[in-house]
Amino acid sequence: TKTINLKNRPKGKPELSDFDFTTSEVPELKDGEILLKTTYVSVDPYLRGRMSDAESYIEPFELNEPIVSGCVAEVLESKSSNFSSGDFVTGMLEWKEKQVVNAENFRKVDPDQAPLSAYLGILGMTGLTAYFGLTDIGKPKEGETLLVSGAAGAVGTVVGQIGKILGMHVVGIAGTDEKIEMIKSEFGYDEGINYKTTENMAQAIAKACPDGVDVYYDNVGGEISEAVLFNINKFSRTVVCGAISVYNNTELPKSTSVQPFLIKKSSSMQGFVIFDYKDRHPEGIEQLADWLQKGKLHYEETIQEGFDNIPQAFLDLFEGKNKGKMLVKI
Ligand code: NDP
What we know:
The chain is an alpha/beta fold. The chain has helices at 47-50, 125-137, 154-165, 177-185, 201-208, 222-229, 259-264, 281-293, 310-317, and strands spanning 2-6, 19-23, 33-42, 68-78, 88-94, 98-102, 107-109, 145-149, 169-174, 191-194, 213-218, 232-240, 268-271, 301-305, 325-329. InterPro entries: ADH-like_C, ADH_N_2, ER, GroES-like_sf, MDR_fam, NAD(P)-bd_dom_sf.
């Protein structure tokens, strides 16, 4: 079976040459194990962090070992009483066409309840990140203004919709006019700002958020987030979810000092990782599934095809080639 390994730790922007392909035999099944065939692979910005050997909340990938990410797979054979062949499961899998795993670490998913890909997006890590980040850390209130960076991506499209469900004025920042059009027409955003064609971001944010920003849901960090600081309201909250604009930096950035802004506005900034909410995942999934079923939430996916295209799909995240959740169908 084919496997994709980390060949080099990327320097700056990752490249195709940082990955390599090997083949290996699939071992015999033992008791409690299942043989899986990968169906969908999630590629995520946070994998960039695991490709470095810097200390983080999650261990780095080993060189010449397979990359691991969230996947949906089909059970081909089972020696576990919990699964039968033909079932579909989700969990963390190596980037392999087929593999044998301990059944304990996997959850069955029902293709009749939602399309299989949804379990890696709106009903998976992406949806949960949007939901807990906004509701728990953002502490949103009806009538407030929510600003979202990375607004057309997997997490951002969900955050904006939840903001609208909660009765907020919602403004998004994204990198193309087409994405701005999409977040407004498909995801209910009231206003959008294309950061690639806007000269003065602080001014553009002031215009789109005439009452200032109460909650800033930050997926990108860097200069965009610095411009937001000029527009935060008294007692505002910044949800530090991601910082994709600096993941490939090789030097420490010359950063704006955020403290004076936060002091002046009694404003808070809090980071989080979705694993912090592990015990509350079922509650989050239940809420997201309910909104989805009632037609209050929609989702967008960019699906690339073919096992060999997984590394390219990952690289494309840093070029903004996705709308909504980026996935690879095998
Ligand atoms: P996205 O679907 O949002 O994909 C990444 C998007 O980031 C691209 O489409 C691109 O859109 C934008 N982007 C890329 N480079 C830059 C840049 N230099 N400046 C500004 N925008 C850029 O990914 P996810 O929704 O999966 O993740 C969004 C963020 O949330 C990431 O930072 C990720 O690390 C974080 N995250 C955090 C979690 C947590 O537990 N804290 C869990 C999951 C995700 P555009 O065209 O608009 O530039």
